[in-house]
Amino acid sequence: MGVNVKMNEGTNTVLLGLSYNKEKKWQLLCGDVTDSDGHSSNWATDTKRHVVILLRNGSHGFAYFDGQRVGNQPCTLDTTDLKRISHFYIGGYGDSAASTGSRKD
């Protein structure tokens, strides 16, 4: 289960994301790095949750779950090779995503 921002580069790499793992812990995904601060929560399907994926100053990504920041460090993004965000995945990973969206300027 997760919310991910991906790039249209063919490698299917998560640029920035928030994931809920098998150990019932939230973790920040930043490229190939996973940062988990141990924030855990029981996922109840009948409960509304507030999830935020935030990009600040074009180079620092953050993820929040119910108002609490996930991860110990911000996700520092490489701005020397700017790529356009192509997909937002909500509720799944890759081809198994429940809902995807894209935007073209």
Automatic annotation (TrEMBL):
<protein>
    <submittedName>
        <fullName>Trans-sialidase, putative</fullName>
    </submittedName>
</protein>
<dbReference type="InterPro" id="IPR013320">
    <property type="entry name" value="ConA-like_dom_sf"/>
</dbReference>
<dbReference type="InterPro" id="IPR055239">
    <property type="entry name" value="TS_C"/>
</dbReference>
<feature type="domain" description="Trans-sialidase C-terminal">
    <location>
        <begin position="4"/>
        <end position="100"/>
    </location>
</feature>
<dbReference type="Pfam" id="PF22925">
    <property type="entry name" value="TS_C"/>
</dbReference>
